[in-house]
Specification:
Layout lengths: L19 E4 L4 E4 L5 E6 L10 H19 L3 E8 L4 H10 L3 H18 L7 E4 H17 L3 E4 L2 E4 L15 H10 L16 E5 L15 E3 L1 H12 L4 E7 L3 H16 L5 E7 L2 E3 L2 E2 L10 H6 L4 H9 L7 E2 L2 H18 L8 H12 L4 H17 L7 H13 L4
Helix pairs in contact: 4-6, 6-7, 9-10, 10-12, 11-12, 11-13
Length: about 400
């Protein structure tokens, strides 16, 4: 599966700072010091509907991570999946009377177009669950051989008790885990499971559903968590720098994935940092496909909204914060974009050397994009009120905003 085109990242004078970021597993900030190649895995979409603002906010956060690392002169090995076979996708295809694979490709292509428009840097590998199946099956078989998986009426489950570190990503108690498991695709009430929290590794073929050869597992399709584990281990290995996604993935997805990988390899932890973006609400409730309260990036673009303004609207909120999308949020971003573009359109201006340092410092401090935007605002106000004599300043500001914030002026 192919990703989307990469926008050019302008080179800046000097060098950025190492990223200090909040780690969900430890509950506090840690400073990441990757090697020459920083490694990041971000969980992708289940493509049964278009990209909404909540998705965009999540991928914007991890795009900033890439840009901070690139500014430190590192390479970035970024991997993202697409869950192109799953219950919600199959249910939507059946509801609409369309082929599930065609629906997945249609929505994945729209996602690519949205990411391109928003100048999100693409992953090096963009892998669908279906194409990952040949690598998933041996991992499930290995978990079974290790005594960490068992069969129940043809399905194969992972035993959470096989991992002594289970629970160290989310730090939730059993009652909270059971509740979230039921809400987020698990089946804690299924009779016969060794532990209600045990997640599905391989689902045996059901009538009317797609299935694949699972070797000794029989025909079926993979569970959600093992999909990401197989892709991450294949392309990044254990101990990569960041496992990322929305905060709704902390449990069960990232907790279970970590346990799968740790049992498979005997190593701990799967990732050095677990980083999670906040949720975006509309009309007082979290944007959700199940609730239908969505603002789609593609519809905003069709309505003539500049993608740079959409991106600025996302950047105005700290990535870990829960916030609400409103018409005013978008209007503020449109106004800010116009102000910035006017400021950099002049032939000279106030010195921008300090501004670049401020942007770098803000982003290195747990991706504090709002602070970075405020710094650019100050420079733009100074440009408007008093101007300056630095002939290179507007160009430096334009390149810095592009390179570090992904906003083309």
């Amino acid at each position: 599966m192919h990703a989307w085109p990469a926008s050019e990242v302008p080179a800046l004078p000097g060098q950025g700072r190492d990223l200090r970021i909040h780690d969900t597993a430890t509950g506090g900030p840690i400073t990441l010091d990757p090697g020459p190649v920083a490694r990041i895995y971000v969980c992708g979409i289940t493509p049964y509907d278009a990209t909404h603002i909540g998705h965009a906010a999540t991928y914007n956060a991890f795009d900033l991570v890439q840009r901070v690392w690139l500014d430190t002169k590192r390479q970035v090995h970024y991997v993202q999946n697409v869950t192109d076979v799953d219950d919600p996708l199959l249910e939507r295809a059946e509801r609409d009377g369309v082929d599930w694979a065609a629906l997945a490709e249609q929505e994945t292509q729209l996602f690519r177009e949205d990411m391109t428009a928003l100048r999100m840097l693409p992953p090096r590998q963009y892998i669908g669950a279906v194409e990952a199946i040949p690598g998933i099956v041996p991992l499930v078989e290995r978990l079974r051989d290790l005594g960490a998986a068992y069969e129940l009426e043809g399905d194969t489950y992972f035993s959470v008790e096989a991992d002594p570190h289970f629970g160290q990503v989310s730090h939730l108690d059993a009652a909270a885990m059971r509740l979230l498991s039921a809400e987020r695709g698990g089946d804690p009430d299924r009779p016969g499971k060794k532990n209600p929290l045990d997640p599905m590794l391989w689902s045996a073929a059901r009538e009317g559903e797609p299935s694949w050869d699972g070797g000794s597992l029989g025909r079926g399709r993979p569970g959600w968590h093992i999909e990401c584990v197989a892709i991450a281990l294949d392309h990044l290995g254990m101990g990569f720098d960041i496992q990322g996604g929305g905060s709704d993935l902390v449990f069960p997805h990232h907790e279970m994935g970590a346990s799968h990988a740790q049992v498979l390899t005997g190593e701990f932890p799967m990732a050095k940092a677990y980083v999670h973006a906040g949720m975006v609400a509309l009309h007082g409730e979290k944007m959700s496909k199940s609730k239908g309260n969505l603002v789609f990036v593609s519809r905003l673009r069709r309505d003539g909204v500049d993608p740079a303004a959409i991106r600025l609207a996302l950047l105005a909120h700290h990535y870990r914060a829960d916030w609400e999308w409103t018409d005013q949020v978008l209007q503020d971003a449109v106004t800010r974009l116009g102000h910035w573009r006017a400021a950099v359109s002049r032939p000279d201006g106030p010195s921008a050397e300090t501004l670049v340092d401020e942007i770098r410092e803000a982003l290195a401090n747990d991706l504090d994009a709002p602070a970075a935007l405020t710094a650019v605002d100050r420079w733009a106000v100074a440009q408007e009120q008093q101007g300056g004599t630095d002939m290179g300043a507007p160009g430096i500001v334009s390149r810095a905003v592009d390179a570090l914030l992904g906003v083309a002026l």
